[in-house]
Amino acid sequence: MIIQALTAALLCLHAGETIYLDTLDLAPVEQGWKTAQARLSVDGNAISIAGKGFGHGVGTHARSEWTIDLFGAATAFDAMVGVDDEFCSGDGTVVFVVMGDGKELARTELIKKGEAARPVHAELTGVKKLTLVVEDGGDGINYDHADWGDARITMADGAKAKPRSTKPARPYPRIAMTQPTAPAITQPRITGGTPGKPFLYRVPTTGVRPMHFAAKGLPKGLALDESTGVISGSLAGDGSWDVKIAARNELGSTEAVVTIVGGANALALTPPMGWNSWNCWAGAVDDSKVRAAADWMVRSGLADHGFTYINIDDTWEAGRDEQGRILTNEKFPDMKALADYVHSKGLKLGIYSSPGPQTCAGYEGSYQHEKLDADRYAEWGIDLLKYDWCSYGNIEPKPDHAALMKPYVTMRDALRGSSRDIVYSLCQYGMGNVWEWGDEVGGNYWRTTGDINDSWASMAGIGFGQADLAPYAGPGHWNDPDMLVVGKVGWGPSLHDSRLTPDEQVTHITLWSMLASPLLIGCDLSQMDQFTLALLSNDEVLSVSQDPLGKQASRVSQEGETEVWARPLEDGSIAVALFNRGRETAQVVAMWDALGLSGRQHVRDLWNHTDQGAFERGYSLEVPRHGAVMLRVTPER
Ligand code: GLA
């Protein structure tokens, strides 16, 4: 009798079909690096955990999330999980979580590389949605190559439905979508330059063209083009001028004060806004793509919202001529003509090099040719240099503080000695706490992190990781958490839509604006959809980014996975961002006392341009998973 019952139970257990997860579509898996692989690790090796191989399984990378529709037809999930043995220079730590219909069903302890695979089991009877999560173990996502070894679902006896991998629907957040047609002068409203060097400022003005511009109080040496609104010339001396600009089109007129500062290297007085070729084209960038970026910067209207720089990243360089002067390769037949073209639109041209003999992509660097290069850039008409450490690591394998600074000082002096104002962007991924000395070596902004990619783990890890850097930013010198990953990106030649969800993209632009980071668009501007354009052209959001006070935001409170960040603005109001880093919708609360405020405060929602009313003690709102709300809080007078 007992034996019969046991046999029946066993039969029952084994009666259902086993579906290995590596037979499902892996495209919907969201993860922090690369893409999920069937029967292979994330780097494409046979799955192996602490020396043990698995014939089945899925290799992924923290943080990852994967939803599978089960239609209530499964009974169990099983896997052997761990960190893959494949070579990578560090040791990953991860936690595996199994969720059913939003509830946690199983969770491992922290697992480190080299530790034996752990069994994970979850009962699935009645579960409709299975979600497999890999968390980063609390130490960031680096080296977190996570394997779901032998991962499988047992189906109920006779089940007809098959599990199906799905991409959860992510509705678009409600943000202002329309572009203004009457004239409005946007931002930045402060700009500067070195007297005696060429000056260029395209008054950022939205509204339909033709437009007529006028200026009162322009400093000596500068002139305004009345039909384009471009101010150019060369400042005659030091000073600060409040220039009254008027703009008019067939629908109306507007006026605003723009401050022009004359002084040695009075550059990047607000965080630079522009485009950089790397996150879309990488090595596939060429002259025509850069021209197209300049064309679309104007055509899309982004230039009217303050976007100015068109930056060529790595791979434009050839060798040197007999005099040691840097040459461009066949992709850039005439750099001077390209600069003239970009300038003709009132925009500025940026370029890239390395203090080492080679750039990161293996092209000619500036090592021992710094002065020649700076003069060459100036001759071409370059306005910005991104200077990327890379092979300088071979010159200085173990740099101390002075050695880290040295190559940047050399190039600073070369740039300043050139005939143009060249914004100086340091790129060395944050080594030696660059934020503490980047200003001293002349940096107008400095990368604080490694390279970003278009995943939540990367963007959020980098963005929220800036929390303690506020004291180091200010007019002329900014922290740079890397370029934007909204729109069509892909590190070229082929592109894909950003893998960030719409809410994650709102978080991205909110964070970067709150952080007073440079806003360098990394997508193909000719292929922007309406949502991407709306994200990048919201003047209420951008006016926080470009606020002349230049104070970077800090985190003011944190509860669970919700956070409130704030930054003071020039007009006495405060920009406040409510973030939800969690996987589910959450209520986020900003209390006035945590912001140093008391009494009634007016709240305006900057993303959707609506006044929310006045509130006595604080403001709270439901924020979607990975989403953000951005507010301007103004004391009631
Ligand atoms: C490094 C930088 C990137 C990009 C590439 C170019 O990785 O961090 O932003 O400039 O080099 O090779």
Task: Based on the model shown, name its key terms.
eight-stranded parallel sheet; 637 residues; single chain; Immunoglobulin-like; 11 helices; binds alpha-D-galactopyranose; alpha+beta; TIM Barrel; Jelly Rolls
CATH superfamily heading of the largest domain: Aldolase class I
**Sheet with most strands: strand arrangement:** 32-31-30-29-28-25-24-35
Return Rg in Å. Answer: 27 Å
Low-confidence stretches: 5-14
Largest sheet: 8 strands, parallel
Count every beta strand, where a strand is a DSSP E run of 2 or more residues.
43
Q: The CATH topology of the largest domain, please?
A: TIM Barrel
Number of domains: 4
Estimate the global geometry from the Cα principal axes. globular
Task: Write a structural description.
The chain has four domains: 2-166, Jelly Rolls (Sandwich), CATH 2.60.120; 184-262, Immunoglobulin-like; 273-545, TIM Barrel; 554-635, Golgi alpha-mannosidase II (Immunoglobulin-like, Sandwich). 17% of the residues lie in helices and 34% in strands. It is built from eleven helices and 43 strands. The strands form eleven sheets. It has an eight-stranded parallel sheet. Helix 8 links the parallel strand 31 and strand 32. Helix 5 crosses helix 7 and helix 8 (456-464) runs parallel beside helix 9 (502-514). The longest helix is centred in the middle third of the chain and has 16 residues, at 401-416. The chain starts with a helix and ends with a strand. Residues 278, 313-314, 359-361, 388, 427, 451 line the site of alpha-D-galactopyranose.
